[in-house]
Amino acid sequence: MNKIDKYIASSVLWAFLIVVVVLLGLDFALTFIEQIKKVNDDYTIQSLLQVILYRLPGKLAEYIPVASLIGTLMGLGTLAATSELTVMRAAGMPIWRIGFAACQPILLVSLLGMAISEFVAPTAEQKANLIEKFQQQENDTFSLTGGVWLKADNNFVYIDAADNTGKLYGIDIYAPEQQQLKYTKSAESAQHIQGTQWQLNKVTETYFFADRIETKRHEHEDWNVSIKPEYLFLASQEPSALSLSQLLDYHRYLHQQKLDGSQYELEFWITALRPIASLALVLVALSSVFGPLRSSTMGGRIFSGVIIGLAFQNALNLFGRMSIAVSFPPIIGVSIPIIICLLAGILLIRRRG
């Protein structure tokens, strides 16, 4: 049986790899076409290609569940088309054994995807974001969008971007006093010195008085803020750009500060449960190959896989967002479509075998 298991596993794995390459290729082409309008003298074709390539590891990890579904349909479908699955069943091999062999490579690539999500994708995504931010800065379009707002020491702080060394870019500090704006500070960048001390670079200060407005400029200026530098960095990132450990760490910090961290918790569970989601979709694919798609063409199987994958991804997003809207733990919303797929796959497999 070991040879048969390896044969089934290799068929599924090769089909999975083909699907991943196709999905990443389509994503690359569509993103390039969509973003090509942003190219100019500062944001060159090379910069655009860098941004797209840096984001490919994150896309790879994200596509693993859907690629697992379509790859299993293709791999087992090929064996069914050549009657090899029929011979295996006639020789007494149960469906669960075929499913176990098909799940092995999917579990392996899912764990690899988890490693990519933890160690590779966050750093690459953050580099891609910085390239885009620098392009905006060079074009003087450093607008108050896409960054993060914080309240620190009674001031409101906007951070446009940050890197994993703790350096901040595009900082705006608004200091209110009795419902009036006392002063604002804008700095091109800032780096942490020690403790609560930061250094602002290329600072423009604007003070508002009853009868006048004064503006001052400094090359450097000290800035004391009580927030830890690692949390300033995490706050400036989108939840999808953080690793599992960063999501968990920042969610705990927000919980301690009695702030809403549900978006970070939702992203954590979507990433953490991705291997289980992949296995659930493999079970759905297995039940389909032995059921309604048994005599279907390869094109029909691929089309069915795409439809099921899109339905699953939309359900994952829908139930995840709904759980936040109704103040349910995000793990419940993320788990609902996964559990539905698991139960549906198990029931259909038991009925057929």
UniProtKB/TrEMBL annotation:
<dbReference type="GO" id="GO:0015920">
    <property type="term" value="P:lipopolysaccharide transport"/>
</dbReference>
<protein>
    <submittedName>
        <fullName>LPS export ABC transporter permease LptG</fullName>
    </submittedName>
</protein>
<comment type="subunit">
    <text>Component of the lipopolysaccharide transport and assembly complex. The LptBFG transporter is composed of two ATP-binding proteins (LptB) and two transmembrane proteins (LptF and LptG).</text>
</comment>
<feature type="transmembrane region" description="Helical">
    <location>
        <begin position="302"/>
        <end position="319"/>
    </location>
</feature>
<feature type="transmembrane region" description="Helical">
    <location>
        <begin position="268"/>
        <end position="290"/>
    </location>
</feature>
<dbReference type="InterPro" id="IPR005495">
    <property type="entry name" value="LptG/LptF_permease"/>
</dbReference>
<keyword id="KW-0812">Transmembrane</keyword>
<keyword id="KW-1133">Transmembrane helix</keyword>
<feature type="transmembrane region" description="Helical">
    <location>
        <begin position="63"/>
        <end position="83"/>
    </location>
</feature>
<keyword id="KW-0472">Membrane</keyword>
<comment type="similarity">
    <text>Belongs to the LptF/LptG family.</text>
</comment>
<dbReference type="GO" id="GO:0043190">
    <property type="term" value="C:ATP-binding cassette (ABC) transporter complex"/>
</dbReference>
<feature type="transmembrane region" description="Helical">
    <location>
        <begin position="331"/>
        <end position="349"/>
    </location>
</feature>
<dbReference type="GO" id="GO:0055085">
    <property type="term" value="P:transmembrane transport"/>
</dbReference>
<feature type="transmembrane region" description="Helical">
    <location>
        <begin position="95"/>
        <end position="116"/>
    </location>
</feature>
<feature type="transmembrane region" description="Helical">
    <location>
        <begin position="12"/>
        <end position="33"/>
    </location>
</feature>
<dbReference type="InterPro" id="IPR030923">
    <property type="entry name" value="LptG"/>
</dbReference>
<comment type="function">
    <text>Part of the ABC transporter complex LptBFG involved in the translocation of lipopolysaccharide (LPS) from the inner membrane to the outer membrane.</text>
</comment>
<keyword id="KW-1003">Cell membrane</keyword>
<dbReference type="Pfam" id="PF03739">
    <property type="entry name" value="LptF_LptG"/>
</dbReference>
